[in-house]
Sequence to fold (406 residues):
Amino acid sequence: MKIAIFLFDQFTALDFVGPYEVLTKLPGAQILLVGTEKKAYSDHTGLKIPVKHSIDEIDQADILLIPGGFGIDKVLSDKRVLEWVRHINETTTWTVSVCSGALLLAQAGLLTEKTCTTHWRRKDQLRKFPLTVVDERYIQDGKFITSAGVSAGIDMALYLVSKVAGDQAARMIQLAIEYDPKPPFDCGSPEKAPEEILQKLSR
Amino acid sequence: MKIAIFLFDQFTALDFVGPYEVLTKLPGAQILLVGTEKKAYSDHTGLKIPVKHSIDEIDQADILLIPGGFGIDKVLSDKRVLEWVRHINETTTWTVSVCSGALLLAQAGLLTEKTCTTHWRRKDQLRKFPLTVVDERYIQDGKFITSAGVSAGIDMALYLVSKVAGDQAARMIQLAIEYDPKPPFDCGSPEKAPEEILQKLSR
Fold:
């Protein structure tokens, strides 16, 4: 099972590593990190991840995963990337995104008339496309699964594993990464956050 | 605020990146990735993270964070690392671990008579030291905070932020990473897992 993860400068590290940690444990998974060039890409803090494959080298994948990050806006106008995403999507069983990665799928025209989600701060931007945006942790529409911000990629990846390899495989991975979350606060979504915090982050 | 994160070959990527994503958002944080050498370290899947600082160059940190991973066992017998961990701990306000990273703190003699935790599969190993192991997502004892397996580092890091910069700072970061977890299954701890899955993973 070939899983292509597209990286770009200014991606968000946890958008990528959350699902990565889950999907590397999927039996038979072969994960390919792909970028426009073979080089190290930096997240928005300068953390570098070397990418071994350029988009010119990868023409098929069973799963395509697009993480998000501040850098996604620049990628949205890269015609070479859009063409690659459209082409790979024709070969996939599942095409998925984390956080603002949904914008790239939308810009490539893949989410037209689909129901999807993204980071809460990106929802207005995603609504500009002809699609339906919902408040869900992750949402499946056909072969597309989009997820909410950053940490939501872990939940989405476990769901994806359950679809690909069954519930037992997903449960086993959940236990392996001891994913029994207990955040010390209950402030993980805009509905739960005090107005003051929401205002500060919405600027 | 200087935060040193120690990496080693065969670390677990999410042990490191979960808290990293949280702590980079802590106001004034300067995160230093540190290894025995300046080189790229690989997680157990071959994902490489370049490390800019060798332990010889870093002699102080406000926070020391030790992630876990299969490779921790090899590090436990590295006297140079143990000496460095002991020395840095003398300079820290907080010394914390994720997953099997607690074993390195214990081996360095820092957790003697402390109450702590680790990945569920590592608890018997940690119990060989003169300390108390508890079943908690994370546990603070004085300036030490140890956490359960892999994904528990996110919860621990949010708690750590609340101690360092206050509850509002932690809530703001939780909202920024949209950490409102909704795992599709409830199988994230050995108490919740079916016996069959537990057996398979315990082998």
User: Anything to note?
Assistant: Chain B is about 35% helix and 20% strand. The helical segments of chain B are 13-23, 72-75, 79-91, 101-107, 123-126, 152-165, 167-176, 195-202.
